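tokens incoming
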């Protein structure tokens, strides 16, 4: 099967909009993250191809990944080239997105080599009660991230300057503009610049704009999708409305997800299926299917939530 528009090249985010690719259940996985500020240009592999000395960069990535964490490059937006070249301080953050353990520990070093000495267990640094908003602008990975991400990060930096950062690849380029809000690891996609401040204001008040929500990074994709279906049917937008969850897959490809929704266990049955072949990034040259989830049942069905907030 060909793409819906097969008469010429289109950006992957435009194709995704045309196909109406579902956002639900597409957040990139990451229970714990290590964020590091790297000014200047990023290559396709942001941390490895950056202004960090190559040996430090490769050692840092290996160290973070061996700890079961996900590394992410961040930088402030709107700086001049000479300001970026003059970087003398490297901010970092250790983020835990697991439910009940959400936290951000922040710090900085004046020598990039000292990044290799930062404990990754969150035992050092300064606790932060403020969220971190990271908007993907990683042009070398996919042009849609820059074209759609930059207006969003510019707008957010104006409205929420202290908490807004550009970041490297998050996954799901076709959903640009994409962003993640820590410490909960809330992924959003197709966020218009005009709507972005309200999305972040809602998160700070404990609610999620379901129009752009992709899922929570600490949850497997099947759990993200199950939660999305429950939210859709109940209208429940509270970030903390869901607790523990377990997911099992049977031989037919169906998932059974048990969700704690406001103290009540809901069993969600999902069918896992593959989409028609598609070009998922701007650089893709061969169409390939992607995984999607279809709701089969929710037991017991959720009632409408009277208050969307906490």
């Amino acid at each position: 099967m060909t793409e819906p528009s097969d008469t010429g090249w289109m950006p992957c985010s435009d194709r995704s909009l045309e196909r109406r690719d579902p956002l639900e259940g597409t957040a990139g996985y990451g229970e714990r993250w290590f964020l590091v500020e790297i000014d200047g240009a990023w290559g396709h592999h942001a941390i490895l191809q950056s202004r960090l000395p190559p040996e430090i960069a490769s050692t840092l990535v290996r160290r973070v990944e061996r700890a079961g964490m996900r590394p992410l490059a961040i930088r402030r937006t709107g700086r001049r080239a000479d300001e970026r070249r003059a970087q003398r301080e490297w901010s970092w953050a250790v983020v835990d997105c697991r439910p009940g353990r959400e936290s951000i520990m922040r710090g900085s070093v004046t020598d990039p080599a000292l990044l290799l000495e930062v404990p990754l267990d969150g035992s050092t640094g300064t606790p932060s009660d403020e969220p971190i908003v990271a908007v993907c602008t990683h042009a070398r990975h996919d042009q849609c991230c820059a074209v759609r991400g930059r207006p969003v990060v510019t707008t957010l930096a104006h409205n929420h300057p202290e908490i807004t950062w550009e970041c490297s690849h998050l996954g799901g380029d076709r959903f640009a503009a994409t962003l993640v809000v820590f410490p909960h690891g809330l992924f959003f996609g197709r966020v218009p610049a005009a709507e972005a401040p309200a999305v972040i204001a809602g998160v700070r008040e404990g609610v999620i704009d379901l129009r752009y929500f992709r899922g929570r990074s600490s949850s497997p994709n099947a759990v993200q999708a199950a939660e999305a279906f429950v939210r859709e049917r109940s209208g429940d937008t509270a970030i903390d409305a869901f607790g523990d969850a377990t997911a099992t897959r049977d031989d037919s490809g169906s998932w059974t997800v048990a969700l704690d929704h406001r103290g009540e266990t809901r069993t969600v049955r999902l069918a896992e299926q593959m989409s028609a072949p598609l070009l998922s990034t701007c650089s893709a040259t061969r169409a390939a299917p992607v995984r999607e989830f279809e709701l089969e049942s929710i037991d017991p069905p959720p009632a409408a939530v009277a208050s969307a907030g906490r």
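note: The chain has a mean pLDDT of 92.
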